[in-house]
Amino acid sequence: MTIALAPPLPVRTRLVVPLVVIAATMVLWEIAVRATRTQGLVPLPSGIGASGLVLTTSGVIFEAMAGSLKRVAIGFAIGAAIGIPMGLAVGTLRPLERSLRPVLDSLRSIAPIAWIPMAILWLGVRGNAALFVVSYAATFPFIVSASQAVRMVDRRLVDAARALGASPWTVLRAVLMPSTLPMLFTGARIALAFAWGSIIAAELAIGIKIAGQGRNVAGIGQLMVETLYVKRDVDALVFYMLAIGVVSLAIDAGLRHLQRRLLPWDRR
Amino acid sequence: MNALVELRHLSKTYTSARTGDAVEALADIDFTVQRGEFLAIVGPSGCGKSTLLSLVAGFSTPTRGEALFEGARITGPGPERGVMFQDYALFPWRTVHGNVVFGPWSRGVAPTTRNERARELIAMVGLTGFEQRYPHELSGGMRQRCALARMLANDPVLWLMDEPLAAVDLQTRIILQDELLRLWGDERSATERPTVMFVTHGIDEAVLLADRVLVLGRRPGRIKAVVEVSLGRPRARLRTSPEVARLVEQLWTLIRDEAAQAIIEETQ
Amino acid sequence: MTRLMRFVEPMIGIVVVVLLWGLVARVAANATLVPSPTVVWQAFVTMLDGDLPRDILASLAHLGVGYGLGVATGLALALAAGSSRWVEAVLDPLAEFLRPISPIAWIPIAILMFGVGRLVPIYLIFYASLFPIFVSTLDGIRHVDRNLVNAALSLGASRRTVLLHVIVPAVLPSIVAGARLSLGVAWMSLVAGEIVGGDSGIGWRILWYQEFFQMDRVMAAILIVGAMGLAADALLRLAQRALRRVNPSLASGA
Q1: How many other C-beta atoms lie within 10 A of the C-beta of residue C63?
Q2: How does pLDDT run across C102-156, given as a tens digit for each residue?
Q3: Bridge partners, residue B23, by sequence
Q4: Is pLDDT at B68 greater than 90 in this prediction?
């Protein structure tokens, strides 16, 4: 295992090598597809670029993303509103934790998307079914991280505060809250990642159900299904995938930046 | 020639992983270690003590100059130069016996021979009965003993010890110092005992254990002084003699200012 | 008395939830909208005699193939990256680039490539399980304690000995942790893949029942999905504990 025994490559090399490899791959890929005349069946870099251009300039993709993101935001908020208090309660009261743990573990193991059929039945296809799935997915990371955060508060910090004359209210506000924030933030990042993944899955599932019925495209998942079954545009699909990845990165990077600004003492 | 280790114009510069700057750890070290002597190396934080040991051990190579062992240039680690690390570096997945027997085992010594040797050494360091324990089940002092037995299994002619007693409490340290002297051969003649290069922060420890004390200055590490310790041997009884106190004071004056400086500059 | 309590307490939560569920079902009085616990249970019993075993087996097969291939590939890639700085320089950024793209986003392309069928969930699981184990193993290799390697070298070990007897044991905990993370995402991808693009397995069956408005069976299937997920995680935790009993440092992490 050389990398365990030797220093890493210089930074400049590490930046250049992947760029070179990616560029080379894309060129070869382009040539291969054109040579075998499989454009349209197999995605190719120039096609992806062209689709991308069309979709961004026409605003189609932004509209769809906005729809999805809106539901992610709402679902995230609902998940936090339910998950944090529940997590805090479970983390503080041990008997509550012991009795609720099997229930929570069981519910947590149900992949959120499995609820789609019931969600559609209860809330209709228009968008709330997807919202239900997203909220469900976002709740559990909050419950887990909130309960862990409470349990991992360093008792010595509480003792130090009390020895300095702090009232219980001050201890709560000035010691417990800052202590739990880092872990809650990490839970929030996980919840957001789950929420983003779930909305796409939910929209895909719903989209498949209503494919070809000409309804208004509500989110990027439904847009992808329409492209898959109606337009059969391979390049556009790959572009959507890349766009989804970019949004994932942006969301997480944003939250990580926020975490570092708000919680400078936390070295996560 | 009684020289075991020769350092000629030894210099070491490395690039800091954190800042990317060049750090000159050692500069122009000219020194000879005599066979059978106990050499202590002291100095303020950042003076390159550990780097020096690392060069003699063969874990890194000098930037300029050379390090010779028995007349030959040091190119890599070897069983004739045994090493004890600051945090013991015991293999956590191996038992005490497994650790002690590692050297002979990896060199292909026959099972009966090496197991016998391991048993002998474990008894010598006082760990009989703990052969099947894992490192995480042992106290700090016991881990140190295990690390020592492991080093001794190869019967090295040079012992390289990097602050081996830094991680144990004061009472254990005193006991271990006495044991170390005994195992090394405090009561034998210079020709019958191994050579030791012992890095430590503790000046009192250096004076107590060593024949000579090498004092290094702050970065870049240069030789500030070489102090002879002309107390008789065996040493264990001389712990509180006035001569010891005088030598300690002498050494401390040499490094006091730089040590104070180090406290401020180590804040990162 | 407390021993009894320890056994009873977890039950309380489940009992309360089931009772509440029954109550809501009674109030809603619509077996399609809210199937009651008893109805769901009956559905489950019927399913057991019918398609359920086949569905579960199909899902397990998807999981087994996808997860097995994914973990093997991820491990191999991590070892390759660990042996050569050049390979690492290529693979690491590639992994960082692909990782944010959720496996779910691959579903349409997978359907296009493989058509609706068992390859969609298998491919999805393969793709999803690759990343956690790759990242975790590579991280473990990078963070092997340099001192352990040095100690072995100065004790006279050859490079091969160091590789097999120092680096591998040191990396094992990271591999196990990665395998556990991989199983978690594999499970999610299994259900999503079967629902959206599969033609067999319990995920797909959920939609099937929904087509026929057999909501009691839908509910039963949903709960089964949950149970299977729990079982998978419990199995892995058991494996981890067994490993820890063999050698404590081989399986760190809860």
Answers
A1: 22
A2: 888 899 888 888 888 889 999 999 999 999 999 999 999 888 888 999 999 999 9
A3: B14
A4: yes
How many CB atoms within 10 Å of residue A253? 11
What are the chain A neighbours of C144 within 8 Å (beta carbons)? Answer: 1, 4
Instruction: For the beta carbon of residue A45, count every other beta carbon within 10 angstroms.
Output: 16
Q: Give the ipTM.
A: 0.82
**Domain positions in chain A:** 51-262
Does C226 contact A110 at a Cβ distance shorter than 8 Å?
Answer: yes
- pTM of the model as a whole: 0.81
Task: Write phi, then psi, for A213 (nearest 5 degrees).
Answer: -90, 5
Instruction: Report the residue from C153, C170, C249 with minimal CB separation from B77.
Output: C153
Nearest to C67 by CA among C247, C252, C235: C235
Within 10 angstroms of residue C188's Cβ, the number of other Cβ atoms is: 25
Enumerate neighbours of C (3 or more CB pairs within 8 A).
A, B
| pLDDT band, very low/low/confident/very high, at A212 (cuts 50, 70, 90) | low
3-state secondary structure of B71: coil
Q: How confident is the model at residue B132 (pLDDT cuts 50, 70, 90)?
A: very high
Is the CATH number of domain A51-262 1.10.3720.10?
yes
The 3-state DSSP class for residue B65 equals: strand
CB A133 within 8 A of CB C44: no
Chain C hits for A224, Cβ within 8 Å = 105, 108
CA C6 vs. chain centroid, Å, equals 29
- Contact between B80 and B29 under an 8 Å Cβ cutoff? The reply is no
Query: Shortest CA distance to C141 belongs to which of C186, C184, C178, C90?
Result: C178
Check CB contact under 8 Å for C188 and A197.
Answer: yes
Q: Which residue of B has its CA nearest to C243?
A: B93
Q: Which CATH architecture has domain C34-250?
A: Orthogonal Bundle (1.10)
Per the document, the length of chain C is 254
The CA R_g of chain B, rounded to the nearest whole Å, is 19
C156, C165, C170 ranked by CB distance to B154: nearest: C156
Where do the domains of chain C lie? 1-30, 34-250
Q: Which residues contact A204 (CB under 8 A, 6 or more apart)?
A: A221, A222, A224, A225, C104, C107, C108, C192, C196
> CB–CB of C26/C15 below 8 Å?
no
Task: Name the minimum distance, in Å, from the CA of C31 to any CA of chain A.
Answer: 12
